[in-house]
Amino acid sequence: MKHRRPAAAALARQRDILCAALEELARADYGGLTFERVAARAGVNKTTLYRQWPTKALLVRAALENYAAATSPGPSTGSLRGDLLRVGRMMLDFASSFEGQGLVRLRLLEHPEPELAEMARALHERYTGQLVSMLGESVARGELLPDADPRLLLELLGGALHLRLFVKNDRVDDVIIARLVDVLLHGVAPMRHQNAATRALDRRSAVRPKTRRAKARA
What kind and span of H or E run contains 35? Predict the structure, then answer.
């Protein structure tokens, strides 16, 4: 048991360093990221970083890979609404975290190491693919039509959260997420009103050809 303790401590220290790297990335962007600041935030000597990651690019790459390995949507909750609620909460946590802000910076800004921005994009695509796969299970449960687009659901939910958080600077909590999810799934009009509107549209469509024919005869 004794030989496991140093290994566990080393792994914990490595995780702290990689998390500190992403936090500093969010604060200073890639150009302002320094080994000194990362080491200070992680509470280690900067030589500890240099021994394992000789360059800044290697350090950030390791931090991105560590973050990707630690985050996963996991299995479906068993319902489309439950899955979307959990995804909404994950989106909120991501947008509010230093790690999420660092990844967004890598994807949106120009960098001396463009492969890092490409890695951030690839991680985003891989994660989105996992979410799409999870939501796709709702087709088998009959909650989504086979030709439905889970990616569009994710984009609409993510876009609504982004608008509230970063454009309007509004509060977002579980209640807001639930309201957004319910609008995505059910719309804003009661079903009886939707049916009435549909019937009225059908009646107008049926009348218009007759009106045109009557005008033609006249």
Answer: helix 35-42
pLDDT one-digit tens code per residue, 84-110: 999 999 999 988 887 777 777 666 555
Name the residue among 92, 99, 119 with its Cα closest to residue 176.
92
- Rounded Cα gap, residues 133 and 151, in angstroms: 10
Q: Which residue, chain included where needed, has tokens 């496991």?
A: 4
Global pTM reads 0.70
Same structural domain, 155 and 117: yes
- CATH code assigned at 46: 1.10.10.60
Q: Burial, 98: exposed, middle or buried (Cβ in 10 Å; 0-12, 13-18, 19+)?
A: middle
Asked whether residue 180 falls in the same domain as residue 78, the answer is yes
The count of other CB atoms within 10 Å of the CB of residue 88 is: 23
**Does residue 36 form part of some domain?**
yes
Q: Which helix (H) or strand (E) holds 84?
A: helix 80-96
Cβ-based burial of 77 (10 A; exposed 0-12, middle 13-18, buried ≥19): middle
Q: What is the domain count for the chain?
A: 3
Pair 201, 94 in one domain: no
Structure tokens at 3: 């030989």
Please tell me whether residues 199 and 147 are part of one structural domain. Answer: no
